[in-house]
Q: What sequence folds into this?
């Protein structure tokens, strides 16, 4: 992922093996990472049990907030694919008890269909 893509909010896929090592103390026994995406320093990770949002804070990024969302809390989601003039795809996820969705932008070549399939697998 290029620096400009991160500044523009575009997400890119992360290496599952690397993120598994980073989340060793966060994941529960038997929990497996399915896929993950990164926007600058922040990530959102799909496991077989939950959606995990990772927010690295501060100048060094050593302070980290881990936000766990059980799939049963996701009320609905939408995926908008890239078009001829709109070069980004967009993912929106609504959580029960909130009015505003969690939104992430993906580059045109990003695997937005895989994200939709992962959500559909665990939410529907």
A:
């Amino acid at each position: 992922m290029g620096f400009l893509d991160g500044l523009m909010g575009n997400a890119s896929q992360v290496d599952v093996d690397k993120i598994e090592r980073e989340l060793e103390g966060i994941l529960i026994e038997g929990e497996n990472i399915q896929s993950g995406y990164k926007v600058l320093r922040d990530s959102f990770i799909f496991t077989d049990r939950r959606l995990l949002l990772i927010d690295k804070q501060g100048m060094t990024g050593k302070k980290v907030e881990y936000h766990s969302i059980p799939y049963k809390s996701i009320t609905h989601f939408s995926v908008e694919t890239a078009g001829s003039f709109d070069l980004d795809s967009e993912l929106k996820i609504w959580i029960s008890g909130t009015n505003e969705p969690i939104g992430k932008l993906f580059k045109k070549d990003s695997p937005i269909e895989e994200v939709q399939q992962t959500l559909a697998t665990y939410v529907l």
Notes: The longest strand covers residues 50-57. The mean pLDDT is 83.
